[in-house]
Structure formats: structure tokens, C-alpha cells
Amino acid sequence: MEDDKQDLLSIGEISKITGIGVQALRYYERKNILKPTWVDPDSGYRYYSQSQIYSVLLIMSFGSVDVRLKEMADAIESDDMESFRRLIEYTIEFAEKKALFYKIAADAYRTALDKMKLANLYELGKIYSREFDEKILLIKPLAQFPEDKLWPEIFAKCSTKGSAPTLLRKMTLKT
User: Fold this and answer.
1) Cβ pair 33, 58 in contact under 8 A
2) With contact defined as beta carbons under 8 Å apart, do 71 and 33 qualify?
3) What local confidence, expressed as pLDDT, does residue 174 receive?
4) Residue ranges with strand state E in the chain
5) For residues 50 and 7, what is the distance between their CA atoms, to the nearest angstrom?
6) Domain final residue, candidates 51, 76, 98
7) CA–CA separation, 171 and 118 (whole Å)
8) What is the number of domains present in the chain?
9) What is the pLDDT, as a whole number, of residue 138?
10) Which of 76, 98, 120 is the last residue of a domain?
């Protein structure tokens, strides 16, 4: 093991490389989530293989999407690829939902900022006006149009005027 030890990383080195705390690594060992490759019997120092860097990063990513440590430990202890595959699929699904939530939240924040910027352009209590493009509004009691001819006739009238209605709702006018 002495020759192989040169390729191993101490717990402090793993911590520095991955950004995870030494105490967290010790905790993961106690919970059977991540065991060191070798523990020095004399000093108790823990050593990890370089390939375990990926495992640490994977554990950290699971934690970032709120996968419980027990679920990770169960999948790892089972030594069953199917269990681990299901855990990863669940994590992907959860991460996508969380990403959608954050996107919606970011859009809401952008909208709030836009409204704040717009509010700074106008004085409170002052009346502003603006011009709109010409719109055509057709008002005629529906009873005068047979249902199957109603919409084609409305669109035909609009197109002869050079425009099309932007929003049409069926309305019943009381006469």
C-alpha cells in the first residue's frame, strides 16, 4: 500500500480540490456515503483515490438538489446499479423542476425590475397620453348573423377595410 499511497489524496487535499469541508467528508464516511480508499492504521488519516473526486462532486450535486443523504447511502450501500440509476433519474427530474422554478422566479424579478424602471419614467399623478394604430371595431347584434356565416362575414368586412380584428369575442347584445 505504501507505493499506492503516493497516488492517494489526503482528506485535506480532497477538501481543497472539491470545496467540501473535512467535517463533511468525515460525516459522509460515518453515514456510509463515501468511504476513504485507505485509512492509515497508525495515524487514522484518511486517504482518497483521485477517482473519488468525481464521487464527492456527485454527492455535492445531489445535495444541491435536495437529495437526502439516506437516499444516497441506500443507493451506494445496495451496490445495485439499478438503484443508483433510479436515484440519478429522480435527481435529474428534480433538478429540471428546480431549474424551471428558478427560471420563473428570475423572470418575475426581471418583470419587477422593468416595472421599477418604467415607474421612474413617469410622475405619479400626471396624466399621459399616447396614440394607437387605427383599430376597427364591429358592433352588430349576433342575431343578424347566422352562426355558420358570422365569423367569415366579420373577417371579410375587416379585410375590405385593410385590417383584421385583433381580438374577437362572441358577445350577445341586448336590444
Assistant:
1) no
2) no
3) 47
4) 9-10, 38-39, 46-48
5) 7
6) 98
7) 35
8) 2
9) 61
10) 98
> Is 59 within the bounds of a domain?
yes
Q: Which domain holds residue 139?
A: 133-175
For 131, phi and psi rounded to 5 degrees?
-95, 145
Query: Whose grid coordinates read 366579420?
Result: 154
- pLDDT means over runs of 10, the chain (175 residues): 74 95 94 91 94 89 84 80 89 91 94 85 76 68 57 61 47 46
Q: Which residue has the cell 348573423?
A: 145
Closest by CA position to 55, among listed 84, 82, 12: 84
pLDDT score at 110 = 94
| CA 137 – CA 161 distance, rounded (Å) | 11
pLDDT at 140: 57
Does residue 23 sit in helix, strand or coil?
Answer: helix
Distance from C-alpha of 122 to C-alpha of 125, rounded to nearest angstrom: 9
* Judgement on whether residues 90 and 152 belong to the same structural domain of the protein: no
CA distance 175 to 142: 11
According to the model, what pLDDT value does residue 79 have?
77
Distance CA 153, CA 155 (A): 5
Report how far Cα 106 is from the mean position of its chain's Cα atoms: 10
Q: Is residue 113 part of a domain?
A: no
